Amino acid sequence: xxxxxxxxxxxxxxxxxxxxxxxxxxxxxxxxxxxxxxxxxxxxxxxxxxxxxxxxxxxxxxxxxxxxxxxxxxxxxxxxxxxxxxxxxxxxxxxxxxxxxxxxxxxxxxxxxxxxxxxxxxxxxxxxxxxxxxxxxxxxxxxxxxxxxxxxxxxxxxxxxxxxxxxxxxxxxxxxxxxxxxxxxxxxxxxxxxxxxxxxxxxxxxxxxxxxxxxxxxxxxxxxxxx
Length: 227
Prior knowledge:
Elements: H1 2-7, H2 9-26, H3 55-80, H4 83-86, H5 90-93, H6 99-109, H7 114-131, H8 138-144, H9 151-162, H10 168-180, H11 190-201, H12 209-217
């Protein structure tokens, strides 16, 4: 999709620019371009014989095209370059061993003898065939793999399980903290802050008023409110 967008950048960016013009009209902002000179080292610069270059062309060349090109290159580096290495994980689940792909996987993640890991992999696959257990996901395979008997296979499975992990969940926690502990709540104690944070993050957990009343009622008070 990004490559199609890059091929049709003039048409696609025109619709983006029209939306930006509508927003600029609402906010009373004049879309203009920066001063163009022959040599510029600190920012994007377009030198052309046309002295009346339009803002649409300027921002398409200086912002849209470089950003999309950089995005496509980063995606290819993230997924396509490591494609052959990641294909070696399939040997742990299937009976067919592609030794070249598995060797690349071992060289990339483990600093050990490749032949030892291959022999361990063969024993691991023999175990799965004898027990008639064929896990299809990494978590199930990790539960079946004994770390003392198959240390290298266990390490590879741990790596496979942690590869999809991102930092979005911790980032959401920090964003939630900024919303909760504002300047007006700077004297909030740690216990109350932790409770409000957990309530904000785990919104899917149902809490009834009766549960809160029961917890509050059992706390020490001057008046006994338990009925």
